[in-house]
Amino acid sequence: MGQRNLKREIICGVDEAGRGPLAGPVVAAAVVFDSDIKIKGLADSKLLTPAQRYRVFSEIIDKAAGYAVAGVSCSVIDKINILQASLLAMRKAVERLPVRPGKILVDGKFKIPGIDIIQEAVIGGDKLIAQISAASILAKVTRDVYMIELADIYPGYGFERHKGYGTKKHIEMLYELGPCPIHRRSFKPVSQMAFWGDK
Question: Does the pLDDT value for residue 43 go beyond 80?
Answer without folding.
Answer: no
